[in-house]
Specification:
Number of helices: 10
Oligomer: single chain
Bound molecules: nickel (II) ion
Number of strands: 0
Largest sheet: none
Radius of gyration: 18 Å
Amino acid sequence: MSEKEQNILNELTLMIKKKFSNESTGHDFYHIERVLKISQYISKHEGADLLITSLGALLHDIDDHKFNGGDWEANKRSASKILEKYALSNNIKDQVLHIIENCSYKGSHVDNKMQSIEGKCVQDADRLDALGAIGIARTFAYGGKKGHPIYNPEIKPSEHHSKEDYFQGESHTINHFYEKLLLLKDRMNTTTGKKLAEERHAFMEQFLNQFYNEWKGY
Ligand code: NI
């Protein structure tokens, strides 16, 4: 990456740090920072373009539908406005917007439309941050913010055939492991992402076993 490109990334990082300083659902600045680092790591191993990957990672949650009343277009609109400020080619901007439009998980039976290798790196990184110890912490933080109970053994996990289905279901946080988190390992796009997902997946299974053991009491 050139010095000019690195400066753009630094400026964007600062702007995002300010914007997300009071975020408490696990989609905070540190999530963005981790997604940036993980996607850069995957990008290097997969031979993807580092600038496009990095811009996609930094902007992937800039105006997420989960926090703006369900507006799915806002993320792309906000990212597009921000990108206009920089002297980047239209091709780069289009590729970044493609990533932002297709990054989000929309349910267990909804197709993944991510086309570019850079997008696949960012999507893998975003999914990796939903797994493992960090993933568990973020899942309960998000569930709490939404007012969901930790667990209710009477409510079983369900399958979702559309994004509307997926975002309307009222459930408890343990179900989220079965409806999304435990499915992600097999949906990783890249070989590098798959490898990184293994350990995090195993840790979540271990967590759930322990959780059910303790749930029974003595
Ligand atoms: Ni994200």
